Amino acid sequence: MSEVESLGTSTVKVDGLFAELDHLQTRFDEALRTASNAEALEQMRLTYLVRKGELAQFFKRLGELEASERPRVGERLNQLKNAFEAAFNEKSAALAKPKDEGDLIDLTLPGIRRRLGARHPLLQVVDEIKSIFVSMGFAIESGPEAELDYYNFEALNLPPDHPSRDMQDTFYLAIPGVESNKYLLRTHTSPVQIRTMEKHQPPVRIIAPGRVFRRDAPDATHSPIFHQCEGLCVDEGISFADLKGTLLTFAQKLFGPDMKIRFRPGFFPFTEPSAEYDFTCTICRGKGCRTCKNTGWIEISGAGMVHPAVYGFVNYDSERYTGYAWGMGADRLAMLKLGVEDIRMFFDNDVRFLRQF
Ligand SMILES: [Zn+2]
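A: This is the predicted complex of the input protein with zinc ion.
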């Protein structure tokens, strides 16, 4: 064989070999592209990459080539081997990823919404009541929930054995070594009025929001714990008209400018004269409905001019000063404001209810 012939034969052989390698690469790339799981990858490894695989067969055929051709073909084979392995490893890593992380964290899933807490609906209304009275010049006062009988009853013109004490079923506190019936859970926030007047000479203008306690059986309108927001105003020349103006302004700020107010005669030992006061029905706005028994009015609470006897307990000059006081059930106002029909809903802590506000 001449040198030319052998060269020519070898060239044809090498060209065919390169064509086969191009074809091998095409098949490998396609198989890699469509491999979608570990089984398919393993099949590829056995087909192309192991010692008896297709690529290895080409290395064996190097011996068939002219010595001068071997480096060129060998270099091409080494390039392919490295490229196959790199592409195979990359795909293996990509397929392994979902198994390790993707099952736990799917970045396309919507996030988990954490619920935020919120102020209790009753306290939201109490806050509104407070801010209305503060805007009218009232200060906010508070006092103890466990109270002395003196402040809860006696200084409010309710001496022991006064029949009006029966109006309020009281929780008395049994304290070892202390005479019975001396301490109690306050039945109203009125003791705060006495404590405030003891400390301050007129003018006094306060509200006393807080919890009170009575031995009532729970039902839709009664709870052994409820909230009051009483008010007191004492100064020179204070009249019943000031009381009416204050409560009317409050009603209109809380429920709307169409609200009206009316007084009916009432009795409380600590006020004289005393009255029950009503607001325009918040449901029918005065037209008449089931809630207001077709009267157009709903009962709110009691009010009146501070009884002169009360001033005697706090050293106020009853000849010089007059004042008014009112009671107010914050729970009742919150029920009307929020459309809640059962007071017990405020104390059940049912988040399905609480989330609605
Ligand atoms: Zn009504």
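The chain has a mean pLDDT of 89. Residues 3-102 form one domain.
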